[in-house]
Amino acid sequence: MEVLHPAAHGATGDPPHLDVPLIRADVRDAAAVAAALRGVDVVVHQAAMVGMGVDVADLPEYVGCNDLGTAVLLAQMAAAGVGRLVLASSMVVYGEGTYSCQVHGPTRPGIRAPADLASGRFEPTCPQCAAPLEPGLVDEDDRLEPRSVYAATKVAQEHLTGAWVRATGARAIALRYHNVYGPRMPRDSPYSGVAAIFRSALERGEPPRVFEDGRQRRDFVHVRDVAAANLAALAALEEAPSGGLRAYNIASGSPRTVGELATALTAAMSGPPPVVSGQVRAGDVRHVVASPARACRELGFTASVPFEEGVAAFARAPLRA
């Protein structure tokens, strides 16, 4: 079932070319969801508004699509006796990543001060001594601390799913995607990923504009690897315990800076060099780098698309209008 939200797919939508039935419906429509679940054994729930959005005016739409939509789906799955779910979650549930202070050890920094950001001091500091922090790897047991509307809805999706499995004895896996890129991303919009925003600028002959100083670190994972992770999760659900929800980081394991992504895309497209703007977006975090160890150990999933190969292919891949 796919509703093709205009924020991601444009006004008319661009459905995938799949040899499967496509039901155009709203995931918040209980009757439509109930009809779509007939004969279904397991659900892979990808429906959501994504990205940073425009401003807080987007809040009702994010909550409606992501959280109400998930609640309707879970209720109808319970009514239909469908007890297995793979949920598309996100690394945004962590907020800032993991950090360590040389004096105070592992710590979680607070929200970066506007005055620091305005003066170009982008790195988080120790909340106790203000010393520079060393970023580390986030694992699935780290604290959830959403710092944007989208992030808050993804945390809520996980909590709703947790309540559902405990109430029904169902089984679920949450895949916390890191920065996904690849063919058929939506073009440049506030709801696009940074890879599509950079590529769209280069297609217009413009340099990609890199926020902050470009040294913020992310894990860019190709959509082909994300698809493989979903297949691995489906297989793992066969043996998962009833009433359980298990989360997994879905990441390449080879982090890069946002500036490196812009440089690699520029080289692949022979475009103008990136411009580092110093601009800051509300809700952005500095470093989020994942440990993929649990997914490797328990799902047998390891990303296989190297960064350089994936970016070179993405430079030529079709995007959605």
The stretches of 5 or more residues where confidence is low (pLDDT under 50) are none
Order of helices and strands: HHEHEEEHEHEEHEEEHEEHEHH
Bulk shape: globular
Distance between the termini: 20 Å
- Tell me about the largest β-sheet: 4 strands, parallel
Describe this structure in a few short sentences.
With about 325 residues, the chain is of the alpha/beta class.
What does this structure look like?
The protein is built from ten helices and 13 strands. The protein is of the alpha/beta class and 321 residues long. A hairpin with a 3-residue loop joins strand 3 (99-101) and strand 4 (105-107). The protein is globular. The two termini are 20 Å apart. The model has no long low-confidence stretch (mean pLDDT 91).
Descriptive keywords:
13 strands; globular; 321 residues; single chain; 34% helix; alpha/beta; 3-stranded antiparallel β-sheet
